[in-house]
User: What shape does this take?
Amino acid sequence: MARIAMVFGAAAVAVAGAVALSYLTNGAREARQGQQAKPT
Assistant: This one.
């Protein structure tokens, strides 16, 4: 039981980290595009 909980916890942390990382990279990319002021 404890091992299953640890696996699910590690998976949740990995998914949350990936979502946060993609959110930050997308935000940085949008910020750079905004500074360049290129029409899309």
About this structure: The chain has a mean pLDDT of 86. Residues 2-36 form the longest helix (35 residues). The helical segments are 2-36. The radius of gyration is 17 Å.
